[in-house]
Amino acid sequence: MTYSDKVMDHFRNPRNMGEMKGSDVEMQVGNPVCGDVMRVYLKVKKGKNWGENVIEDIRFQTMGCVAAVATTSMMTEMVKGKRFLEVEKLSEKAIAEALEGLPALKMHCSGLAAEVLKKALEKYK
Amino acid sequence: MGKKKVYLDWVATTPVKKEVLEVMMPFWLEKWGNPSSLHSCGQEVRKIVEKTRKEVEELVRADRIIFTGSATESLNLVHKGLIEGLNKTDCLPEIITSSIEHKGVLETCEHLEKSGLAGVRYLRVDGKGKISMEELFGAIKKETVLVSLIWVNNETGAVQEIEEVGKKLKKVNGERKKRGWGKVWFHSDITQGMGYLDFDMKRMGLDLASMTGHKIGAPKGVGALFLRGSVSLVRQIDGGGQEAKLRAGTENVAYVMGLCKAVKIAFKGKKEKRERTEEIRDYLIDGLKKMEGVVVNGSGKEGAPHIVNCRVSGVEGESLAVLMSDEGVGVSTGSACSSGDLKPSHVLTAIGLKPEEAHGSIRFSFSEKISKKDVDYALESFSRVIKKLKRIRKGIK
Fold first, then answer.
1. Which is it for strands B144-150 and B119-123: parallel, antiparallel or unpaired?
2. Is the whole-model pTM more than 0.80?
3. In chain B, where are the structural domains located?
């Protein structure tokens, strides 16, 4: 399995990694049986409607393979400071592309990173 | 990075030994003839190849050696070739093998099952990776034609009692003969045993044994199949009459000479090599056991001298292996994750690990060349790497 330099960089130096005290929303997805679990914490600045809410800060924790850590890290970079409506449709493909590609077998990690974000946003109503 | 480098993946492959390379060199530049040629240029090479073949046959007490391209090729030839070589009868022949074989056996058996050429019985193993003699001998029936067992498991180091199986099988075959039933042939994938354990086809009661060169200091791309007695196979590569008509294609002379030299070296001072390697293994196991959240998988100190498999709770094997590599330490994941398959290792789940435990497993494998200092460095690295991954996963429930 060969990873891009960008994947390796995010794995070795994960961005926005760690717990967040006083977060507005927490979400966890994945299953240890499959090998990957991701957790995110969001600090939200309230907007005039749901879509106008802003992800003021985001943190993540991941148990899993190189791709699982890298995709969560990249996802947090892509959405930090953005309004919900800008990122609610962030796709697994977009995260993978931002990482200069992922091995086909590891696309599900990118899917999991997209899922954890989507579920966290939905939870914040 | 300029860091220290410690290679602890000797099961994956080994460097070519200098003495092996020296034996190989003349067969490219000087004695480059085709051994099948009638002229002196070829005949000179033929004589050397056959003399060397004989020497190795005597060393391992085989009647014949067929040189192949890899252990996997030998395994394919044994299983497919034996089934194809049987006299046609109404009943489906059956192979008995274990659930912790190398993919070379498991996929070949699956191929035979899918093609409707043979039935296959997969024996379970206990927590240490051992088959049960009762289950094996209870499974033998009239249709059984082959028992095929891996000697040293490449993931956990579990060692099967090949000699004991061989002895019991001899009795079983005596009884079968009286009844007019066909013989149950005995094969072992000896790839990971050759370097450290005593190998003797006759004493072990083996009819067939498969191995590759690159695990014992020969180059990649050459394997062998040892045969004893009257077993008959149908070749899987058709063409010329090389290798007693069991494997067509011009002999890869230099590589064959390299493999033979590596086998001869393996037989020298085996006991000392084994003891030295066992000492390193036990030192590593003791170190791992002191680490929080680390559990040694399978056979541990009862297994092969050069393999240790362990799991770390709450972290994933691929991440461990990649960060270990950043530290300069080469290890493998216990799971086949990185080799294009996301399923947890069939070997680790067979010895009773849960999928999440199998995902968090790592294999250390080494040789007599590895020192305690190397192990100390690997253990320190392992501790740092685990800490880092636990930081990344800290809040996961």
1. unpaired
2. yes
3. 6-15+269-393, 31-267
Looking at beta carbons, which residues of chain A come within 8 Å of B344? 35
Are B337 and A12 within 8 A, CB to CB? no
Q: CB-based contact (8 Å) between A32 and chain B?
A: yes
Alpha helices, DSSP H only, in B184-245? 201-204, 242-245
pLDDT in tens, A26-83: 999 998 888 899 999 999 999 999 999 999 999 999 999 999 999 999 999 999 999 9
CB B204 within 8 A of CB B193: no
For the question of an ipTM over 0.90, the answer is yes
Tell me the shortest Cα–Cα distance from B63 to chain A, in angstroms: 42
Q: At residue B62, what is the residue type?
A: A
Q: Which residue of A has its CA nearest to B316?
A: A64
Q: Cα(B81)–Cα(B56) distance, rounded to whole angstroms?
A: 23
Among chain A residues, the shortest Cα distance to B324 is held by A12
**CB A37 to CB B395 under 8 A?**
no
* Residue that is written with structure tokens 């899987």 in the block: B236
> For residue B207, what are its two tokens?
């009819």
Q: Which residues of B touch A116 (CB under 8 A)?
A: none
The answer to whether B276 and B292 are in contact (CB under 8 A) is no
Domain B31-267 has CATH 2.60.40.3550: no
For the domain spanning B6-15+269-393, the CATH number is 3.90.1150.10
Range of the domain at A89: 5-123
Considering only the beta carbons, identify the residue of A12, A63, A65 that sits closest to B318.
A65
Of A1, A18, A39, the CB nearest to B338: A1
pLDDT in tens, B331-340: 999 654 445 5
Q: Please give, rounded to a whole number of angstroms, the shortest distance from the CA of B338 to a CA of chain A.
A: 5
How does DSSP classify residue B343? S
Residue B109 bears catalytic tag:
no
Q: Count how many domains chain A has.
A: 1
Residue B123's closest CA among B384, B392, B351?
B351
